[in-house]
Structures are given as structure tokens and as C-alpha cells.
Amino acid sequence: MLNPQIQAPSPSPAPLPGPWSAPRAEAASPAPLLRVENLTVRYGKRGRREAPAAARDVSFSVSRGETFGLVGESGSGKSSTALSVARLIEPEKGRIFLGDLEISALRGKALRAARPRFQMIFQDPASSLNPRERALAIVAEPMLLSRQYSKGEIGDRARALMTRVGLPVSSLSLFPFEFSGGQRQRLAIARALSTNPELLILDEPVSALDAAIQAQILNLLADLQESLGVTGLFISHDLAVIQRATRRVAVMRRGSLIELAPTPLLFEGPAHPYTWALLAASLPKGSRRDSLRKAFLPRAPHEGPATFGGCDYLECPLREEPLCLKAPPLARAREGHFARCHKAAEARDLGARALARNGEGPALASQVA
Ligand code: ADP
Ligand code: MG
Predict the structure, then answer these.
(1) CATH of 31-253, one of 3.40.50.300, 3.40.50.1820, 3.40.1190.20, 3.55.40.20
(2) Ligand 1 atom nearest to 81, measured from its CA
(3) Are 258 and 272 in contact, with CB atoms under 8 Å apart?
(4) In a mutational test of the pocket of ligand 1, which residue from 40, 79, 204, 242 has the highest number of ligand atoms less than 8 Å from its CB?
(5) What are phi and psi of 214, to 5 degrees?
(6) Percentage of the chain surpassing pLDDT 90?
(7) Are 348 and 276 in contact (CB under 8 A)?
């Protein structure tokens, strides 16, 4: 839907260029831009007891120019991880590096000086953009805070950025409410890009938009990341969006990272039973979904011992004791593909067999709704 007040140039959706196409050979991978090491986030105390960790011992790294996804159900700890990386909340533990710089150790002036290098885009631009500021002030703010641009440069850059994100330069004088939802997200993107960041942290950037607009914004982000070489940490609860927008992906469940793989491999055949269940839930109605759902149907949670240190996916249909009472390490399933599961090999077999019963290959790529 286009806001009639704005004559937007029709943004020609670029073909999806591909950080997510063929995974680059490991040897050619540049040094990581972002490294997250053993990140734990906890929000205060609940009564007298310590609240459970919102993110627990989360580690991953993202290569320069790569778009890395975090996927998981609501409440799995994706935003807590993103906000820690963006230095908007203080984690309880863990270290975060941007190149050689440990951004998790920065305070005060040093943190302000580093902020232009990483910018965040939120789900809902209606609440993340100041409703009382005009678009120009919104786009200019990160540049002003960085103190790295002259007044003239700020104006020039703001105009160029509007064009770059598919908004008319004249809309710099409008307020956020005068834009449509998709246009507001374009404005948020222009603002985030204004300081030439190396890292964009995108927390559900298209989840508030309807399907047609989602596709436009995903195209725009892909185009911008490709042409500007920006690295992305891309968060979504939606597997179809993750499949489209990322090159590698980590799955979160209850604060933990349970699986990590090149995106095409994850969609071809996960290694964690929980990821299979997620995938089954995201498939369109049909025999493939039915047979995967049946194979990976969570069962009534097993009555475990009171103090529990093992796998906490108690509903797992493949659970086996005493094996699963031991904490599963993030073990290699195949090249670049890791899962925190003692039964990963069986899960992959079970999934492949469930799909084969439908007389089709394992590729789920085009099947996600
Ligand atoms: P996601 O983004 O995957 O939905 P979140 O990181 O927002 O997950 O939430 C992880 C857990 O932390 C949830 O249990 C959530 O209720 C809790 N949580 C998130 N934000 C806060 C907060 N500001 N205060 C207390 N608990 C929070
Ligand atoms: Mg969230």
C-alpha cells in the first residue's frame, strides 16, 4: 500500500543477489567481523529466585559481508542476543567482538565512538522512530551523534540515502505517521545506514509487514547489503524469511543455541528433532507436513530428575535415558553443520524417511509457506 502523499519512485526489486546462494568455500571465508562468545543474558530476579537466563552461553561468529540468521519461537532469546550485540542491554556474561574491538568492554566515550559501526533495525518502525521528528531529523540523528559529519554532509547523505532506499527526497520533510508501514521501514533502514555501519542488526525487520511489502523490503535489504558490503545479523521467527534472507543460520530454543548450519543445509535436513518440529510446523498443509509432524510430534514431557543438567527438550520424541541426561555438546553433523543433540544422526534419518514416504526428495526449500 502506497501512501498517496508520497510519490515513491517504483523501487525496482533487484534480483536476490546472493550471500545465501552457494555457501562460500571455508578457505575463502574472511576473518569474522562479529564474534559472540558465551553470551548470557538475565533480566533481574523473579521474587527471591534468580530469573532463568533469557540467553545462555550463546556463541557464534559472522564473516564480513555475510548475513547470519537467528531463528526460534517467541521467547527463545533472539532479541536478548540482538540487544546485547547492539549494546542496548548489559549481558550478565560473555564477550562480543567487532573485528578486533571488544565492544562488550566499551563504556562511555569509547562506546559512543564505536556506535556508528553497528546499527539496529527493529520490527516496528512506528515505535522505534520518534513520532515528533521529521524524516530528515530521524535520518540525521545517528550522524549528528557520531560527530563525524559536517552539516552539509549530513544533508547530502540524507538525500542520497532516501533515494537509495526507494523514498522520494521530498519525503524528508514528513513525519513518520505520513509514511505507510513499508515506507517507514525504508526510513528506518536509511537511518541505520546513515553512519556507514559495518554491521546491521535486524530484529524481525519484516515481521510487522504484509507479504507483498515483506518481499520488497527483503529485496531492498539484500540489494543494499550486497552493494554496500554490510554484514547482517538477521533475526526472525519465520523460517521462510530466514531461508530467503540468510546464508547461515542458528536455531535458538529457550535461550540456547541448539543448531547451526549453512541455511540451505538446514532446510534440506535439520539435525535437531526440535528444528524438524519447527520446520514441520512451517510447511504448507499436505502429506509432507503431516508425515513430518507425526514423526517429530513432541510427546508428554518426560518426568526428569529434579536437578537437571542434560538436554532440556524433555518433549523430544527421540529422547533416550540415560543418554540424554548428559548435556549434549554442539557436535558436528556434517561440514559446517552443528547440533546440540545426542540423537542428531537418528533425527536426520527419521526426517529423511518421513519425507521419502511421500515419494519426494528431501529438499524443503520451496515448500516453506
Ligand atoms: P525472542 O526475541 O526470541 O522472542 P526475547 O529475547 O525477547 O526472545 O525473550 C527471551 C526471554 O526473556 C523471554 O522469556 C522473555 O519473557 C524474557 N524477557 C525479554 N525481555 C525482558 C525484559 N525486559 N524483562 C524481563 N524479561 C524479559
Ligand atoms: Mg524478539
Answers:
(1) 3.40.50.300
(2) 6
(3) yes
(4) 79
(5) -55, -50
(6) 76
(7) no
Distance CA 58, CA 275 (A): 17
H or E stretch at 337? strand 337-339
Q: Is residue 72 lining ligand 1, measured as CB closer than 6 Å?
A: yes
Separation of alpha carbons 317 and 339, rounded Å = 16
Query: Is there a contact between 186 and 217 (Cβ–Cβ < 8 Å)?
Result: yes
In this prediction, residue 368 carries a pLDDT of 46
pTM > 0.85 = yes
Burial class (CB within 10 angstroms; exposed 0-12, middle 13-18, buried 19+) of 246: buried
Determine the 3-state secondary structure of 33 from DSSP: strand
Spell out the domain ranges in the chain. Answer: 31-253, 264-367
pLDDT classification of 151: cutoffs 50, 70, 90 = very high
